[in-house]
Amino acid sequence: MIRLRTAGWFCSPRRRWWHPVLRPLLGDDFFGKLAGFSAGSASIVLAIALYDLATRRRIHAAWAAAAAFYAVAELLSIWAIISPWWPPMARALLGV
């Protein structure tokens, strides 16, 4: 669970680092943002699952549930980012 949370903590720095490079290649649609924003986190989550399979021969149920929740949260956040209602709502929330 700690490793899964660590994957979430490092999302923002990785996004700032490689999304500007990958953006022209991937585009600004849903799948382009999904690949650009979530590729690093997904690779960490996958590595954790492979580690569990290699060392314990199973994936713990709590970790699998948390990974599924994390994946849904990533998909919903990207959907919100590309939705037309998000920029006005973000400005309103920030008071800008």
Supply Rg.
15 Å
Segments where pLDDT lies below 50 for 5+ residues?
A: none
Main sheet properties:
none
Beta-strand portion reads under 5%
Distance between the termini: 36 Å
Using DSSP, what is the number of strands? Answer: 0
Query: What would the average pLDDT be, to the nearest integer?
Result: 77
Q: Percent range for helical residues?
A: over 70%
- Enumerate how many helices there are, as a single number: 5
Any overview of this molecule?
With 96 residues, this protein is mainly α. The chain is 85% helix and 0% strand. It has helices at residues 2-9, 11-26, 30-56, 61-82, 86-94. Helix 3 packs antiparallel against helix 4 (61-82). The radius of gyration is 15 Å and the shape is globular. It starts with a helix and ends with a helix.
Spell out the blueprint of helices and strands.
Layout: H1 2-9, H2 11-26, H3 30-56, H4 61-82, H5 86-94
For the structure shown, list the relevant keywords.
globular, 5 helices, 96 residues, 0% strand, mainly alpha
